[in-house]
Amino acid sequence: MIAVIAANLSTTATAQIIEPGKWEMVTTPISMDMPGMPPALVARMRGRPITLSLCVTPDQARLGPRALAKASKNCRYTRFDARGSRIDSQMVCTEPTGTITATATGNFTPTRFATSGRTVTTGRRRMVVTSHTDGRRVGNCRN
User: Fold this and answer.
1) Is residue 141 in some structural domain?
2) Mean pLDDT value across the chain
């Protein structure tokens, strides 16, 4: 789910690329509506940061902030707009268990970004999660 926050469609407009290298992204769930989940478990997950790292190649960096979204082959952007320092996106993933729709808005520079997001999952595992993600380039990739 978190990896979705943030595929393979072209960008409406990208005025700025990001720097290649190792990126770290920290996503913090702010609110969670997860029917059927024990309230104590949901409470423990809320506010607990999840950290992901990603190596961005020079070719990927030319895609701009879109390169930072790790998504499965079942995902596609229905909207992706990165102009100046603003980003606005929506990704839809169709999985055997249901559909995941993730939206994100925020700001980015070549070495940092911050977004607010909302992920809605339908099907057997219904849920709605709002979150905040901060990302930054932390160095070079190691091969």
Assistant:
1) no
2) 84
